[in-house]
Specification:
Number of helices: 2
Radius of gyration: 14 Å
Strand order of the largest sheet: 1-2
Order of helices and strands: EEHH
Structural class: alpha+beta
Helix content: 25-40%
């Protein structure tokens, strides 16, 4: 998930919580135009207009909408 050397990522799992990742590099959020991405971008625009953060994202959400997360899948979702 990295495009630079020396990056740091923490992938944290817990049986009672959803997994999370903290990256010291860039994970490009979304980046693929489909209906789910349009919904996410609309939500992010609303957040920005309300002066609220538009990140973080979740691994589950990124697996649905982010082609950078599909590198090991035999076909795109």
């Amino acid at each position: 998930m990295s495009h630079t050397t020396g990056h740091i990522s923490y992938y944290i799992t817990d049986e009672e919580e959803s997994p999370v990742v903290f990256t010291g590099d860039t994970l490009f959020v979304a980046g693929y135009e489909n209906e789910r991405v349009k919904e996410k971008l609309s939500w992010a625009q609303h957040q920005r207009e309300a002066d609220l953060p538009s990140i973080p994202s979740t691994i589950e959400e990124e697996l649905e909408i982010n082609p950078f997360m599909w590198v090991d899948l035999p076909e795109t979702p």
